[in-house]
Amino acid sequence: MSEKIKAIVLTSTSGSSDFSNLQLKEENYPKIESDDQVIVRVKASGLNFAELMQRQGFYKPASKTPYTPGFEAAGVVEEIGTGVTDFQVNDRVIIYNGSGMWKEVICLSRSNLIKMPDGMSFEDGAALMVNYLTAYQILFRMVNIRQGDKVLIHMAAGGVGFAATQLCKTVKDVTVIGTASAAKHEAITQNGVAHCIDYTKEDYVQEVKKLFPLGIDVVLDPLNGENAIKGYELLKPFGRICHYGAASITSESRSFVNAFKAWWKCLSVTSLDIINQNKSVCGYHLGFLMNNPSCVDQMSTDISNLLEMYSKGLINIQHDSTFAYSKIAEAMKRMHSRQNVGKIILKPDSEIEKESPRNVEEVKVATEDKVEQTQPEQSQQGGEQKAEEVARSEIAEAHREPVQSESEQIEHETSKLNVNDDQAKSENVSIEQTGEKSLAEEAQVENA
Fold this sequence. Notes:
This protein has 16 helices and 15 strands. The radius of gyration is 22 Å and the shape is globular. By secondary structure, it is α/β, with parallel strands linked by helices. The protein is about 35% helix and about 20% strand. The chain has helices at about 50-55, 120-140, 160-170, 185-190, 205-210, 225-235, 255-265, 270-275, 285-290, 295-310, 330-335, 350-355, 360-370, 375-385, 395-400, 405-415, and strands spanning about 5-10, 20-30, 35-45, 70-80, 90-95, 105-110, 115, 150-155, 175-180, 195, 215-220, 235-245, 280-285, 320-325, 345. Strands 3, 4, 5, 6, 7, 14 and 15 form a seven-stranded mixed beta sheet that branches. Mean pLDDT is about 80; it is low at about 360-448.
């Protein structure tokens, strides 16, 4: 085919406030190069916190730039290799990989395709893999959740938090404690959280201790930093904590100072500590598992279980918003500022033009309005935080730091750490200028 396709390309790792290292570029339509490959036209892709970390250079393993990010998508088969017998043209499929999913058309191995159940939307297909597979494997393979457990889920309104809450409810008598800003408490309560904690105004450690003075059984920790220590200390004997992220290290613009502070405060225990306290500590990284041949069988089994649960109605995927590929910056802003309740979906501009009476420019206005509407809440919450709350959360501390320009911030931070910032400044043109103020002048980040 002579058709040109569009792809989001990460040109360099940077925390730049204008997101100029993410660009929408044209590529040639892909070609099948081996008999086990399949070409899929993407209808919807998922946005995850891992891709925010990739942009900033915090994600490991790191791919060499430039490349197209994206772990998950859903679409329709357009071509199949001669060795592919279990898929046909026009099949509706879920696709996944360590990168490359933010394209209009993708060529990948048949092993990276899953047939979508009847009745599943492309949006649900694009939202299932990362969030639900992460939550499923943490709960049922890592911490082995069981009847009667008391589980603390941080960021309970986020994609993984929402998924984990639903999966917890499939086990009898499991009690979920969830942290989120007050505006999201109704949503997470309806999803199955029994005890909501507004981390912006309350010390979640003290609130959990009031509820369960003897301790809790499980902590799901996507924050890390000092929250890893707090979570470990909340566990009672036989308790389990699983670390699967580093949200306290990242903010809208990369900060070396905040990253160092969070790293310095991470949990550090010895094998003797674990023996004496009778607790379990584990970590989870889906990116590594996707590239590990020894995990293929477990991945396949767990995905099949999730699809069965979806078909039975045990999974109800929560969607927050949809953004065109050309509006990737706005989508990332929304997730960085912790405003999403559930999954953020990305779609090729061509798909938005097909399915909606509005054109892409109208979608652009709608998504910009969605981001702007979150600013008053952020400003109000930032003003309400007291000085002593800074010590409670590395994220809150990062949010209260003085706003500086990108160059001033890097100069200031690197002088304090006595390190060199080797980050190359991108001269590429950003995907699309929105006319908004730079992120460093926007609303302060809210963690959910």
